[in-house]
Amino acid sequence: MMDFSVALLYVFSGMAVAGGLGLVLCKHPIHGAISLLFSMLSLAGIYALLDAHLIAALQVIIYAGAIMILVVYIIMLLDLGSADAQTVYRKAGLMGLPLLALLLLLLGQGMISVAGDAAAPPLAQGPVVCPPGVACETDCGDGVDQDGDNMTDCADTDCAGVAICFGTVEAVGANLLGPFVLPFEIASVLLLAGIVGAILLTGRKPGELEPSVPPPAIQPGSIADASGSSEAQDTEGAV
Amino acid sequence: MSEALSSYLLFSCAMFAVGLVGVLLRRNLVAMLIGVELMLNAVLINLVAFARFTDGQPGIGQVFALFIIGVAAAEAAVGLSIVLAVHKARGAISVDALEELKG
Amino acid sequence: MGLYLRFLPELGMLGLALALFLVSVTIGGESDALDERRRDERRRTAAYVSDRIGLLGSVGVLVLAALAIWQNGTLFFDAYRVGLFSQLVKIVLAAGLVGAMWLARDARNIPVRDRPEFLLFMTLSTLGMMMLVSADELITFYVVLELSAYCLYIMVPMASGHGSHNEASYKYFIYGATTSAVSLYGMTILYGLAGTTSIPAIAAALGAAPSTLALAAVVLAITGVLFKLAVFPFHFWAPDVYQVSTHGAAAFIAATSKVGAVAALLRLLLVGADVEQLYWVLGGLAVLSMTFGNLAAIAQKDLKRLLAYSGVAQGGYILLGLMGQDSAGYTAATYYTIGYLAMVLLCFLVIVEVGRTLPESEGGRPSNVLPISALDGLHQRSPVLALALLVGLLGMAGVPPTAGFTGKWLLFKAAIEVEAFWLVLIAGINNTIAIYYYLIVVKAAYVHGAEGQPRLEPGLMAKMAGVGVSLAVVFLGVFPQWVVPALDRAMNALLGG
Question: Please, are residues C248 and C103 in contact by the beta-carbon 8 Å criterion?
Fold first, then answer.
C-alpha cells in the first residue's frame, strides 16, 4: 500500500507542477486558468493523501469551484487574451529570477535538513495522553465526554491528532470555533469589505463609468524619476 | 524521493516558484492573479504537510489552511473587480505599469 | 465587564463601521423609483451624514481607546494580547483616523455617492491595524493584516478620475497580494518549525534551535509588513499610489497606515527575538531604503511623489531602531513614528487645502496631482498653512526643535548602542541629502512670489488644526519625557513577555 501512495504522490505532484507551468507558458489566459484548475484538483488529491479530507473537499469546492469559475468568467466576459508573444511576457521580470533561484536553494536545502526523510508517522490510534494535571478527552471514539467540557470525541480539540479525527469536519471545526474564533469572526468582516468593494468597483451603471478616453498627461515633465524611467508613462501607457 | 515530509516541502517549494515566476513574467493581470493563487496553494501544501507530520497541535495547520482558502476567495473577488474597473476605464488589461515589479 | 473593556476600542471601531455601513445601505441606497434630482439629494444627505458620523465616531473611538489604556491581559484563547504597547498604539491609530477622516471630509474627488463606503473602508482598515498590534498568533495576524490591506486596495481606485487610478491600484493590489503570499510562506515554515502559531511559542522554539531556515522564514514572514511600510525593495507601489489617489486616501495611506505597519512589524519581529542575523538583514534594508528613497526624492516635481519617496527613506530610519531588537530601539522607532504621523498629516493638510484651488483636469474631474510649483508664495497666500508646511517638512528633515529631531536623535543613539556606527554615519549623510529636497519645497512656499496663484482661504478649523498639530510636533520634540517613559515601559513589557 505504501508504494501505491508514493506513486500517487508522484502523479499528483507532477500534474500539479505541470498545471502551474501551463499557467506560465500558455499565452491565452483561459488556457492558464484551465491548467490551474488541473493543478488545483491534483492538489486536492495530495491533501487526501495527507489525510486532510476536509481541506481536500474544500479545495475542490472553493478553489476549483468558486474561485476558478470566477476567474474563467471574468476572462470570458472581458474577452481577454492576446496571442502576441511580445505582449505576453515582461522582460523586466527576468531580473527577479536569479534572486528567486537563490531563495529556493536556501529554502530547499534548509527544508531537507530540517524535515529529514522519515515517512509520515502513523496517526495516533490509542487513547490520548493528557498533559499532567489537565483533564482531556482520552477516548475519541466512545461518544462520551470524558473531560466534561461539553465537547465529545472529535469535536474536542484534544482529539485533533487521532486517526479517526484527523482531517474531519468536527476536528477542524472545533478548532475554528474554539481557539481561532477571533480570526473566524474577523474573516466575516474581511468578506464584507470584499463584497462592498466589489459592488462599488464594478457596480457603476453605464454613464457613470470612468471615461475611456486617455487622460491628459499629468503635468508635463513633473514626474521624472531618479531611476530614469518615467513612471508616469508606466501608469498611463498600459494599453 | 519517498513519501517523506521533505518531498512534500520540496514540491511546495516548486509550486511556489512556479507561481512567483508567473507573477514576475506574465503581463496579463488575470494571469498574474492566477500566479498568486498558485503561490497560496504552495502555502497550503506546506501547512497540510506540517499538520500531518508534526505532533504539536495538528489541528492548527488545517485551520490555517481553511483561513487562507477563505481569504483567497476575498482576494480573487477584490482583484477581479479591480481588473474589471481597469478594463472599463482603459479597454485593456496588460501591464506595462508593472514594469518595475521585480523580485 | 473587564473583558469588554479590554476590547473596547475595537468594539467602538466595529460599531462605527456598522453605522457607516447602515448609512450606505439605507440613505445611500439607490432606488430606481426616484427621479434624478431626488436621487442626487439622497446621495448628498448620505455623504453629509456619513461625514459627520465618521468624524464624531472616530473621536469617540479615540476616547474609548484612551479609556482602555491601562488594560492588560489576553483574550480569545491567548490569540489576542492587550498591553500598554498595544493600547498606546491604538490611541495613536485612532488619532490618525480622526486626522484622515477630517482631511477626507470634503475630498471633492471622492464622488458624493461613494463617500459612506470610502469612510467605511477607512474605518475597517484602521480596525485591522488596531487588531494587528494585539494579534499574538499568526492566523489572527494574517487575517487582520489582509483586512487592513484590502480596504486600502479598494480605496485607491475609488477616486473617480482617469484610468491611471485603476492601474496604480492594480499594481498596489498585485504587489501586495504577492508579498502577502511570500510572507505566508514564511509563516508556514515558522509553524512547521515550532508546531504552533503562537508568536511567543515560536520565538522560544526558534531561540532553542537556531538555523538558516529559521532566519529565512522570519525574513519571508516580515515581507508583508515591510510592503505596508514601503521599505526598499517593497516600495514600488508608493509613488504611484500616493500620486493618483485622492488626497484623503493618500493621507490615510501615508500617515495612519504607516503607524499600523511599524507597530505590526514590532509585533511580528518578536518571533525572531533570538535570531541574531536579523540585525544584518534589517540594517541592510535600512541603508538601502534611506539611500534609495532620498536619492529618488530629489528629482521629484510632484509633492505627493516626493512625500512617497521621503516615506521610503523614513522607513529606513525607523528600521535603524528595530535592528537591535531592544527596548531602547523600539521606543525610539515608536516615538519617531508618532511624530512622523503628525508631520505627514500637517503636509497633507496643506496638500488638501492647496489642492482645492487647483483647476480641474479635463472632463471636469478634479486633479489629484499637486506639483510643488502650486505652493509658490504660500506664505503670502496663507501664513498659517505655510507655517504648518514648514513644521511638517523640517520635522521630517530632523531639524530641532521638532519631534523629528528628537526622534532621529533617539534612533541614532539606539543604533550606536547596538554598535552600528557605520549605519548612523550613512544615516547622517542621508539626512543631509534629505534636507536639500525638503528645502526646495520650503523655498517654493517662502521665497517664490505668489503671482498668478489662486487665492487660498482655509477655514477656521483648518487653521486651528494646522497650528495645533504644529504645536504638538514642537511640544513632542521639546518634551520627549512626556512620552518616552511610557513607551519605554510598554516596550519592556512587550519584550519581557
Answer: yes
pLDDT digits (tens, 9 = 90+) for A6-47: 888 888 889 999 988 888 888 777 888 888 888 989 999 999
Higher pLDDT, C390 or C456: C390
Cβ neighbours of C336 (radius 10 Å): 25
pTM of the model: 0.88
Domain count, chain A: 2
Q: Which of B15, B33, B93 sits opposite A20 (nearest CB)?
A: B15
pLDDT at B50: 86
Contacts of B55 in chain C (CB under 8 A): 195
Q: Within a domain: residue C393?
A: yes
Least trusted range by pLDDT, from A88-102, C203-217, C371-385: A88-102
**A207-216, C10-19, C93-102, range with the lowest pLDDT:** A207-216
Give a yes or no: residue A66 inside a domain.
yes
**C75 forms bridges with which residues in the sheet?**
C80
Q: Which of B42, B61, B79 sits opposite C177 (nearest CB)?
A: B79
CA gap B72, B81 in Å, rounded: 14
Range of the domain at C325: 277-497
β-partners of residue C137 are C198
The string of pLDDT tens digits covering residues A185-222 is: 999 999 999 998 888 888 764 444 443 333 444 433 33
Residue numbers of B between 22 and 61 with CB closer than 8 Å to C: 23, 29, 32-33, 35-36, 39-40, 42-43, 46-47, 49-50, 54-57, 60-61
Query: pLDDT per residue over C104-153, tens digit each?
Result: 876 566 777 788 888 999 999 999 999 999 888 899 999 999 999 999 99
Q: What pLDDT band is residue A117 in, cutting at 50, 70 and 90? A: low
Omega of the bond leading into C233 within 30 degrees of 0 (cis): yes
ipTM above 0.85, yes or no: yes
Name the CATH topology of B5-90: Helix Hairpins (1.10.287)
Q: Is residue A152 part of a domain?
A: yes
The rounded distance, in Å, linking the Cα atoms of A53 and A47 is 7
Q: Is residue A61 part of a domain?
A: yes
What total number of domains does chain C contain?
1
CATH code assigned at A22: 1.20.120.1200
Chain B residue numbers with beta carbons less than 8 Å from the beta carbon of C177 are 33, 36, 75, 79
* Bridge partners (DSSP) listed for residue C73: C82
Q: What type of residue sits at position C274?
A: D
With 0-12 CB in 10 A as exposed, 13-18 as middle and 19+ as buried, what is A202?
middle
Helix axis angle for C84-103 and C257-269, nearest 10°, is 160
The domain of A134 spans 123-205
Q: Are residues A133 and A74 in the same domain?
A: no
Subunit contact C166:B33, Cβ cutoff 8 A = no
* 3-class DSSP assignment, residue B94: strand
Facing B52 at nearest CB: one of A50, A62, A211: A50
Contacts of B16 in chain C (CB under 8 A): 185
Q: Report the Cα C120 to chain-centroid distance in Å.
A: 17
Is residue B17's pLDDT more than 70?
yes
Give C249's pLDDT tier (boundaries 50, 70, 90).
Answer: confident
The residues that bridge with C302 in the sheet, in sequence order, are C371
- Give chain A positions within 8 Å (CB) of B84: 74, 78, 201-202
